[in-house]
Sequence to fold (1052 residues):
Amino acid sequence: MRWEERREVVLGVLALLFLGAYAWPILDPGLDPGWERACRLTQVVVWVAFGADFALRVAAAPARARWVRGHLLELALLVLPVLRPLRLLVLLTLLRAINRGGAVSLRGRVGVYVGAGSVLVGLVAALSVLEAERGAPGATITGFGDAVWWACTTMTTVGYGDTYPVTPLGRTIGVGLMVAGVALLGAVTATAAAWLVQAVAEEEAEEAAEEAAQEAAEEAAQVAAVGARDPGAELLREVRALRAEVAALRGRPDPGRDGNLQQ
Amino acid sequence: MRWEERREVVLGVLALLFLGAYAWPILDPGLDPGWERACRLTQVVVWVAFGADFALRVAAAPARARWVRGHLLELALLVLPVLRPLRLLVLLTLLRAINRGGAVSLRGRVGVYVGAGSVLVGLVAALSVLEAERGAPGATITGFGDAVWWACTTMTTVGYGDTYPVTPLGRTIGVGLMVAGVALLGAVTATAAAWLVQAVAEEEAEEAAEEAAQEAAEEAAQVAAVGARDPGAELLREVRALRAEVAALRGRPDPGRDGNLQQ
Amino acid sequence: MRWEERREVVLGVLALLFLGAYAWPILDPGLDPGWERACRLTQVVVWVAFGADFALRVAAAPARARWVRGHLLELALLVLPVLRPLRLLVLLTLLRAINRGGAVSLRGRVGVYVGAGSVLVGLVAALSVLEAERGAPGATITGFGDAVWWACTTMTTVGYGDTYPVTPLGRTIGVGLMVAGVALLGAVTATAAAWLVQAVAEEEAEEAAEEAAQEAAEEAAQVAAVGARDPGAELLREVRALRAEVAALRGRPDPGRDGNLQQ
Amino acid sequence: MRWEERREVVLGVLALLFLGAYAWPILDPGLDPGWERACRLTQVVVWVAFGADFALRVAAAPARARWVRGHLLELALLVLPVLRPLRLLVLLTLLRAINRGGAVSLRGRVGVYVGAGSVLVGLVAALSVLEAERGAPGATITGFGDAVWWACTTMTTVGYGDTYPVTPLGRTIGVGLMVAGVALLGAVTATAAAWLVQAVAEEEAEEAAEEAAQEAAEEAAQVAAVGARDPGAELLREVRALRAEVAALRGRPDPGRDGNLQQ
Fold:
């Protein structure tokens, strides 16, 4: 466990390094060529580290072919240069470490992933689209502010149309971001719905429990009034109480109560 | 309770005062400087009152550090000048007072909060964006009507693009409003879903209850036909009826009924 | 019942008449003044008929003040001239008549209302916005085709921005349509969610029932092997079977089965 | 089964052929007239094949009139030339074949249909809108890239407004795509909600099961301490254990446990 945690922290730091080396030349177009080369080198170094991590895990897996098949997305992120910026998603694994710490509910965890994932995906899309669009004729996204603004209007599906990509690569990034936006909307709605469905169910269960408790109390009073010492009567009392419980569980008045107790 | 209610009413009135003092100079750009100064003074006074309320509650809390940690959002609204207009959200606490009065269902309360919260957030955003955009070169939001129209198109994620913020501050307000819009969509959907899921479940439960009641009646008729005086038979009758109930609860025909009663 | 149905049909026919008299002058701006006057007269006649229907129902209600309070929306549609076109929503009551005929599920009824309500609201909004916008300087909605197209882009929250209202009245109609669009999205999502949640639950219940049936069969075989004639043993068999059922209901293996049957 | 599968594969291949013959003249406006005629011929041939398939199935149906009434949509796709491109939806039946192979969960199947259906509908809409818009005055959709980009912005309800249809046919296609987009959003949200509702319920059931198991263990220990040889006591033990189970099922502490065991 300790080793695994250390590995995650190292990967997270490397991803942050990658983020810096990826973002700097995009944000500062007039960057000194020497620094630009340094950034590229950093990206290559992080990429090699990620590749080595992947190779080590393949080597350590008992069934290698199956392991690779289960990590195809990760492999694609590693091999396809166009998906390069998405390597930053490794930062989401840091969230796993955070979530492990506290005893968070499933809904809380989904919320954290949705929030952090949205910010990360939006940031990556803004950087990539800026790289793709800057300098294109007729581009409306010409600065980082524009790019972030575009990413926000796209993810929330508002889409004013004051900023939009015009290059094929930019539009491809845009389609990916729209899909992410639809998924984001779905996740937000689902989290809200899950909370509300559960809260409504709990409120109703509370009411039902109160009613059932009252009914059970009345039942117990009647049973006590009947009174009995012999074991057969005790059994009868037990079974009748049980039946009242089951009836309460079904949420309808015990049908046999009145009829059978008068005997 | 009485004291707490009075406090909420006072805060609500102060917030309305703040709303007036905040909105007037924005809505009337050619306001007399004397009145403008009066509005600023009113804002400061309300701010001081809110700060005093916060300080008093800190002082009254048993565990102060923990109390502050639980009210960080409130503290941020108080301290950060840029979040100033959001202080109006204190008006939502008035809703709490209203909700306390009637015995409203959870779904009803969510609906009231969603509706009133949407109107309040939209109004605040319209005022702030108008303040930020008015006079900016290339601005499309130049009057209060434009600002409200923009807030509506943004919160519902329609986003025609005839009006949109162009300044950094206006865009920041816009991002906040988009997030509110996504949350609004989620809440509306969730409320509808909770209602529908519950209504469908109730409709099915009714049908199941009718079937079970019929089955139980048939069962009771059979049991009555068998007849019996001795306590063992009575116990048997009780247990069989119970078993029929549990079977009905599981929603499948009682498996042992036919076989065991023929004996 | 018969009378009520006849009333609904008459109101529906009147609403269709109103639709024609409302739409014709809007769709054909160069309408002969005589015809235009006839249309206005028809609208007034239908309005008087609706008012008479409302008055009759008030008179027939046992608690009049309370009845009016429960029909405030209807009263507003009748009294406020700006809500005039929404009187067409009376056509939705025809759906109630249709739904009454077949035994439709709740979800089906919601679907019918959502579909027909969307079409009706969209049509009304398109007609009203066309009336409000036509002739306004800078208007982008200048024909019925544009108006319908605008209504569709607004209700689905797509909002391209090629057509949008520019007059205050047109924008007010637009805000109403956006709210309807959000509610539409919520209803569609909720219907889909209710279907899916239920279908998933049924699929799981089926699997659980199969497992439980298998378990119960094994249990029955064991019980049969034990065999017994005396009533005490019969009771034991009954209670054990019942316990297996409850255990199956809870979805976990019966804990006492193995231990108690070996005795 | 075998025959049905072969039929589906043949229809799928024909649909792919149709896709090619439909798409080629649209994508390459300067196509040689001979090739264009070949494409048209291919479309007619596929159409005849689909018609023959439909006729054969009508002939094979036991109740023909009822069968046709149940396949009205299919008939419309066959007869109405404007719905021609939607014949490609027959490709979705290939998914059925794929889904039949693996034991996929309902949610998984919904996901596959939503994903593949979205891509297919988007592709068909992009091709049709391109055919309708190309050459129209003021058109913003002039190439296949534009058309796909437009389809994506429409289905996700982003709607930047940089590309939008201007012809009546193009707008009709657009409305259909918007409705598909709303349904897509609903399906995505519903799938997410179903997953989350179920996961939350499972998490809670697990916690409840743990508590119940602990309670049952304590109960069993108490029962064992009481000890008993005679059948009456055994019966009592059974019924008490059962009652503890039912109480655990209702999720509240067994009310009669403490009182009855002390006797």
About this structure: Chain C touches chain A through six residues (CB under 8 Å). The CA atoms of residues 61 and 70 of chain C lie 11 Å apart.
